[in-house]
Amino acid sequence: MSGVPKRITKEIERLNRDPVPGISVEIIGDNIRYFSVAMAGPSQSPYEGGLFKLELFLPEDYPMVPPKVRFLTKMYHPNIDKLGRICLDILKDKWSPALQVRTVLLSIQALLSAPNPDDPLANDVAEQWKTNEKLAIQTAAEWTAKFASA
């Protein structure tokens, strides 16, 4: 792993030694900055029972800039758009070099448990979440069964 910042090496070692519950992370190929992530849908959420695939990339400037993360699995969520981009403050203006990949993954998992339709990326989904939350949750559960069955 020569040429790779010690910080990235340490984070990978920690993720392997002490994995985040419900989340697996694997390096893709020989690029130590590019990861495949599998995230179990949190219990007590419409995503429960689903296994969601994400990609995570650590830019050259990491940890001064946040990782790039997106869902590859199709999602029905107000903070995740059709391209899988995620609206999460720590992936944008609230990023701090003190945060780690582990923190980012836990935050994304928490976002699945607690969607925030007041800060949407998918406006149509957010609108439904606000006007008919029961139907939105039902749709999210249906999409989970259809697109994220393990």
From TrEMBL:
Residues 3-149 form the UBC core domain. Its EC number is 2.3.2.23. It comes from the Eukaryota. CDD domains: UBCc_UBE2N (cd23813). Keywords: Acyltransferase, ATP-binding, Nucleotide-binding, Transferase, Ubl conjugation pathway. Pfam families: UQ_con. The active site is at residue 87. GO terms for molecular function: ATP binding; ubiquitin conjugating enzyme activity. PANTHER family: UBIQUITIN-CONJUGATING ENZYME E2 (PTHR24068). Belongs to the ubiquitin-conjugating enzyme family. This is E2 ubiquitin-conjugating enzyme. The lineage of its organism: Eukaryota, Fungi, Fungi incertae sedis, Zoopagomycota, Kickxellomycotina.
